[in-house]
């Protein structure tokens, strides 16, 4: 059984493009030390997970694949899924509407469009990763012009994640989400990104989240 588990794990990892394999390792950092993960090859990552999660490595991997939007691999290899733990949604004080909703400098950038008063939920890391995978190479332009982030912070993100454009995009979006707090919703991000020259699929994806 252990051999079957290892073989399946390796086949799953080999089916991932290099960028998604690196993203998978990044998303595992909360469970496995980064110093062990980052240099690991695909066979080495199999060994690490089998040691740390005996009998449960496929379930852990399936949870990360779901965050990456690779449900096709979960189905193809018939991976067991973990219990989904909903991300905690920040709540506003009872009966209060935050001042920031009426502040025209909040949201995307000075002069940007504020979030509408009725918003369902804050974007999750899974949502951000799916947007990050669709963003093109002009990520710094998007970050500076449309998300109002500092160039120095974007350069720091690039240095911390060498050679992985998807993680640059993901960390940039996380930085925006940290700043916006409860305002970091699908409709708000869509308003920020609408003027940018991006894959239309990004706006469609964010639109689909607005009703959730």
Word description of this protein:
The protein has 212 residues and is mainly α. It has twelve helices and no strands. α1 packs across α4 and α11 packs antiparallel against α12. Helix content is 54%, strand content 0%. About 11% of the residues have low confidence. The chain has two domains: 73 residues, Death Domain, Fas; 85 residues, Death Domain, Fas, CATH 1.10.533.10.
Rg of Cα set: 19 Å
The chain-level mean pLDDT equals 79
Instruction: State the CATH superfamily name of the largest domain.
Output: Death Domain, Fas
Q: Any idea of the CATH topology of the largest domain?
A: Death Domain, Fas
Give the N-terminus to C-terminus distance in angstroms: 40 Å
Unreliable residue stretches: 84-106
The number of distinct helices, counting runs of at least 4 residues, comes to 12
Instruction: Report the β-strand fraction as a percent range.
Output: under 5%
The helical percent reads: 40-55%
Gross geometry: globular
Q: What structural class should be given to the helix and strand makeup? A: mainly alpha
Major beta sheet, specifics?
none
CATH class of the largest domain: Mainly Alpha
Quickly give the CATH architecture of the largest domain. Orthogonal Bundle
Oligomer: single chain
Count of domains: 2
């Amino acid at each position: 059984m252990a051999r079957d588990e290892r073989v399946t794990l390796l086949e799953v990892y080999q089916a991932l493009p290099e960028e998604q394999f690196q993203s998978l390792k990044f998303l595992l950092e909360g469970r496995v030390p980064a110093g062990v993960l980052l240099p690991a090859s695909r066979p080495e990552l199999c060994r690490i997970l089998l040691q740390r999660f005996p009998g449960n490595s496929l379930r852990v991997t399936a949870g990360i694949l779901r965050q990456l939007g690779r449900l096709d691999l979960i189905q193809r290899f018939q991976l067991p899924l973990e219990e989904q733990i909903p991300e905690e949604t920040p709540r506003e004080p009872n009966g209060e509407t935050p001042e920031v909703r009426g502040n025209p400098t909040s949201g995307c950038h000075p002069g940007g469009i504020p979030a509408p008063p009725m918003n369902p939920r804050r974007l999750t890391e899974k949502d951000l990763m799916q947007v990050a995978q669709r963003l093109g190479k002009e990520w710094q332009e998007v970050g500076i012009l449309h998300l109002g982030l500092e160039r120095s912070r974007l350069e720091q993100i690039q240095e911390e994640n060498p050679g992985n454009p998807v993680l640059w995009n993901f960390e940039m979006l996380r930085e925006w989400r940290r700043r916006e707090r409860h305002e970091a919703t699908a409709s708000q991000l869509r308003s920020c990104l609408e003027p940018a020259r991006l894959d239309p699929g990004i706006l469609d994806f964010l639109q689909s989240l607005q009703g959730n």
